[in-house]
């Protein structure tokens, strides 16, 4: 079974992303615009994985460097 390495993010980047409604794909790390801060498992427009989470959600998940 193939496992994905989950990305981590800088707190400053996530704080800015909350204000701009930006989420991030945990599979590839790409930004997704127009994403609610509490978004979970949205589809990534870059890699197609359902791993896009809002910035607040990423902080709550503890994925901060």
Per-chain topology:
Layout (H helix, E strand, L loop, with lengths): L10 H9 L2 E4 L5 E3 L18 E3 H6 L5
Structure explained in plain terms:
With 65 residues, this protein is α+β, with helices and mostly antiparallel strands. It has one domain. The chain has two helices and three strands; from the N terminus they run αβββα. It has helices spanning 11-19, 55-60; strands spanning 22-25, 31-33, 52-54. A three-stranded antiparallel β-sheet has the order 2-1-3.
N/C terminus separation: 27 Å
Number of separate structural domains: 1
Given as residue ranges, the uncertain stretches (5+ residues, pLDDT < 50) are none
| Structural Rg | 11 Å
In round numbers, the mean pLDDT is 91
- State the secondary-structure class: alpha+beta
In DSSP terms (H or I, runs of 4 or more residues), the helix count works out at 2
Question: Residue share in helices?
Answer: 10-25%
Strand adjacency order, main sheet: 2-1-3
Listing every helix as H and every strand as E from the N terminus to the C terminus, the arrangement reads HEEEH
What would the keywords be for this entry?
65 residues, alpha+beta, globular, three-stranded antiparallel beta sheet
Task: Give a nutshell description of this structure.
The protein is an alpha+beta fold and 65 residues long. The chain has one domain (11-60).
């Amino acid at each position: 079974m193939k496992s994905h390495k989950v990305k981590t993010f800088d707190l400053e980047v996530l704080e800015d992303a909350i204000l701009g409604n930006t989420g991030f794909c945990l599979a590839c790390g790409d930004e997704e615009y127009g994403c609610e801060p509490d978004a979970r498992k949205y589809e990534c427009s870059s890699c197609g994985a359902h791993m896009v989470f809002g910035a607040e959600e990423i902080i709550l998940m503890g994925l901060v460097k």
